Amino acid sequence: MGILEHVKMLEAKVDKEIDFAKKLIEENKALKEEIASQKEEIADLEELLQAYKEEQNAIENGILSVLSQLNQFEDVVEEKRLSSKTENNDDAKNAE
After folding, report:
1. Among candidates 25, 33, 82, 15, which has minimal Cα distance to 7?
2. pTM over 0.70
3. Using one digit for the tens of pLDDT, what is the confidence trace for 29-58?
4. Which DSSP string corresponds to the chain?
5. CA count, 13 A, side-chain hemisphere, 35
6. In angstroms, rounded to a whole number, what is the distance separating the alpha carbons of residues 47 and 54?
7. What's the distance, CA 5 to chain centroid?
């Protein structure tokens, strides 16, 4: 094999390696774009999650408030019931 043939083989190998490097550069660029897109998506999801947590807290606080009001109502009803029962007993004793 002559020098010219070695040079042509070397040139072909160099061209092949250059093409491979270009392919890797393009893949790298595509992966970076995908990463950037996924980071944006993560940021959007984190924002949605935060809004969801805030909404859940508001719902929980609302439920706790309603339960507290219901307990207060039950206490008032129970007091009225006991008061009414006591008055009825007093009326019955006075009637005797």
Report:
1. 15
2. no
3. 999 999 999 999 999 999 999 999 999 999
4. --HHHHHHHHHHHHHHHHHHHHHHHHHHHHHHHHHHHHHHHHHHHHHHHHHHHHHHHHHHHHHHHHHHHHHHHHHHHHHHHHHHHHHHHHHHHHH-
5. 6
6. 11
7. 64
